[in-house]
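Board notes (copied after class):
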Amino acid sequence: MAVTVEIPGRPRQTRTLDALPTAVGEARRWAAAVAGDLLGPEQAENLRLIISELVTNALRHGDDGEQIDLAVTPKSEFLCVQVTDDGPGLAPRPRALDTEEHGGYGLFFVEQLTRRWGVTRENRRTRVWFELDYGT
């Protein structure tokens, strides 16, 4: 099993945002700034898209009036990102494209654009995490 380490001089960075509609744009800009020159143009755009989707989900499914925590950790081979909210969690169904509801495709895109992703529950909070290859 390969050991993945953080990049020296590029430590994990965190940010807490109020759960307001403006959090989506703030999260997108902040994560892109933290990633900086680590991502090629295509992956930088993918990062912005994924962050937008996950923060929007946190706003939609999280508890009202709470906060959204973000963490970005540059690893040697990929960027690790976490979005944590106070919502009840979800049973991810990223391949469930036969939904009759409006929307529902966001996690499918997350799955397609990341090396891997997942959902965890800890201390009554929901964390969605993903790993994004640096790529071009």
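Comment from the instructor: Helices lie at 23-35, 41-61, 106-113. The chain is about 30% helix and 30% strand.
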